[in-house]
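Record format v2
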Amino acid sequence: MKKTLFEKIWDSHVVESIPDGPDVLYIDKHLIHEVTSPQAFNELKERNIPVLRPDQIVATADHNTPTENQHLPVRDLLSRKQLKELTQNCEENNITLYGLGHPYNGIVHVMAPELGITQPGMTMVCGDSHTSTHGAFGTIAFGIGTSQVSQVFASQCLLVQKPKKLRVNVNGKLKKGVLPKDVILYIISKLGTNSGTGYFCEYAGNVFEEMSMEGRMTVCNMSIEMGARGGLIAPDETTYEYVKDKEFAPKGEDFGKMKAYWETLKTDEGAEFDKEYSFDAEDIEPMITYGTNPGMGIKITGSIPMEGGKSDAKALEYMGFKPGESLLEKPINWIFIGSCTNSRIEDFREAAAYIKGKQKAENVNALIVPGSRQVAAQIEAEGLRDIFENAGFTLRQPGCSACLAMNDDKIPAGEYCVSTSNRNFEGRQGQGSRTILASPLTAAATAVAGKLTDFTTQLN
Amino acid sequence: MEKFITLTDTVVPLEIENVDTDQIIPARFLKATDKAGFGENLFRDWRFDKDDNPNPDFPLNQSEYKGSILVAGNNFGCGSSREHAAWAIKAYGFKVVVSSYFADIFKGNALNNGVLPVQVSPEFLEKTFLEITKNPSIEIKVDLENQEISIPSTEISENFDIDSYKKTCLINGFDDIDYLVSKKDAIRKFEEKRKQNIQPATQV
């Protein structure tokens, strides 16, 4: 039978199927963090159930951590308690933890790929919806709730209904200044925030084939924003090159054996999808969002759509925008380059290349937050720190930061922030904050101009 | 887990689409390490203004609406996977959420906490909102056994889907951990077989 990439991986992980019910799906890697794991550990303790496979779990501290003075005790007492519980739970259960200050610490979806923990053909879960990021490696990766975290602790398996199959093709040549973030924001703006619900999405076409792993991660990361449980891209030479030599990747002969297996992970010619969409790369331009869900996106030179129901009107009122309005020249006081969507070295290289020799506008607070200690070290090694600091940008220590504003990195009420994160929900970046999602390049250009501009005319 | 069979109760309408889990429970309340106390912060930033005064326009603050059934607009529970959203809904006292569409992760989280997400047609949802406008204290009946939702004082009723495994769990008060732990032998066998077929990934 002809199978899709998704089916090949899924089927090889099914322990058993319940008739007219879910599959018992085996999980290769389980990533955990401080916010969604404590109640799961408690559940196990209450029921007196041990963690079945501690060596298949990796923990990090990221959601709740400060991005300044990480060497000092965490000031916020609730955050400190949550981090302490994570440390205790990991110690008690023999789970590897890359806590605050560890050279491998970082946002869970940045640190696992860069350590080679993420590998093609795996099933991976984490109590975080952006676990879909790891699909960039040809991996079935999806976010789970805390009850499911305890289920994986107890059994290394999950009960899940097999999702339907969706494919999104993008072919052609991307225009100058169009980054992977623009590609995924464009797709979501066309398909809406629930078109993917009940589906797992494969991204195909030369645009994804030509993308770096960092770019593929940005795309797969936002699969959840169209409702899809996850997204994935077939592994290829770009994938193998990235994984090779990473800390926990198979080495030598083992790598060769695994690569031979990974090469079979492709959708068979003629395999069927339940739903399929195709887009032309030439139609995509730098994108921004204007509303309070990631589907409310337009090209930066476009206008806010006229029609819309009650919920759209509520979103525009929150954002302080009007139907038909262009957002060009709109003054912006905050930009944030970071989050599990865009905090990898390539994102900072893109931003730095634009910023070099320029200054941020006076009205702008520009926050740069690397995704991991390793990315922070790369920023240093490549001399990007000087570029950011000379331009007046603030470079912080790694973490989720202003993407969800659980720590002190918040955007003030009523202010606009051009953000490379993944969600523009009401209050996401702090109570009353107004988020405009965009690529690292758009964020950098906005910081320099102090307003939204059509920067593509200035690109070489 | 508490058993769920049938429920007839008054409702709270929330006629907003794409209600994301950041609205259900904002991230700043996720610092707790237990499941208690989330109910008071359910829909915090819609329910209260910035000075913590109740917003009189929000249905949860309107005395004509009460009950354990929440009726919400299309695509309820999208966004973050935080189960705190399901805990907040349950702790507030809701046992059923009715919408024309649920995000996958929220749906699973709700079911794992004994809160029943009932997915209805857009037409049914529209009619329900209309009936609630006419009579704020109207009752809705949810019959899990027969997979039927109805408004008993009217002719309006519809069947809803739920997978039979989850239905059995809810009716009997079982949860997934009980089931998975009972499968330990099958899981061990699977691990053995997998080791022989594919090289295991390098352990961390």
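The beta strands of chain B are 6-14, 69-72, 96-99, 116-119, 139-143, 148-150, 157-159.
Chain B touches chain A through 61 residues (CB under 8 Å).
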